[in-house]
């Protein structure tokens, strides 16, 4: 404990001390565990520029083969009957006569060797076809996502389909009271159906596991989960499905607003109660009683404020307050029924990634945490008085990878459009294991920046503890075997503890 206390007290002074010892600030930042974001280790490209050549060769051979096939079919087509084609033949002859003299020998050579060239190109494509599949597999994930949306749409239209097959028209009059409760039950059944599908896919394709679910509060209490965003958040989908099955609770995901712009996903986002997530909405979901009390106190303070009473007429204020309250009550009554069933008096489970799309696209093989100055999640935890549970998933960047070539241009394009542009490849069946860390409670008088830094350090510590760095697809694939997975875990633990001992020894030498 004394070592940890010394580490906490000298957190912001360790780089200066290491700089004095080694005489270089860069070496200090590389050895310090608290300055991992500023460290500059040697980067290994996940996709070097030289590996782009096979991709270009694949597409070039495909286009060349298509052009050769078209040319071969055109030149070897049978001659038309001389009924009405004499004029066309004369026009073709005139066009050929206008061609250069070198074009005809070139066409003759091409047509003479077309079959052999075609066989050679087909052989090249057979060798390069697995490389093309790497870039086509991410489309399978998008297809699975849209298949889920199609399943939701089909299930929502089940009454209309059954009524159409039976030839009976559903009467809309007087059915609101009788169909309100069954629709709530069917929503729960539909969530269970989707959860079972994603759970089966995660178990079969990735051997998905969750470690530390017992750390989450019992059903009836709110929980705030902050996770590291992978290239595609597969772990979020699998964790939501596992949480629904194991605890019969729906974790509410806070997603990027561009997902609401995608066509066909609004229904599934509404089914999972996904939201963009302002601070007030998240606080109300995590701690509804605290949000209601703060609203009542705010309304009482505004109504009893002497400045407002002096600035405006008392009668106008009363009329305005009653009208706004009536409008708010009417909006709450006419709100979405699903969101009202989700928000209860006990609080809900919230799932949020501060890095978002920026972390998904521009993090590297060392799993760097790219949060920038995003501290809204810390304000949510402080206002809701709920702890933060750090979450990290092993090999989350190895399942679907992103071409790292031209990242600076993609970064500028993303900052301008806020849309995820990139070339994805992979969808490998790697081992995925989600780790839930110990809760991080907000301290008295702690700012949102300090709480965000503590959360970031906790997730970085989990990355050092559980992730093989730099990321390796082969290692992640071999972790599907239990023996190799146990060796990787022991190796990661050994490297982690040895590094922590070195860092603590440096701090003890400085304090002594």
TrEMBL record:
The keyword Membrane applies. Residues 324-333 have a biased composition (Basic and acidic residues). Signal peptide: none annotated. Keywords: Membrane, Transmembrane, Transmembrane helix. The chain crosses the membrane at residues 52-75, 126-152. Residues 319-339 are annotated as: Disordered. GO terms for cellular component: membrane. This is Transmembrane protein 68.
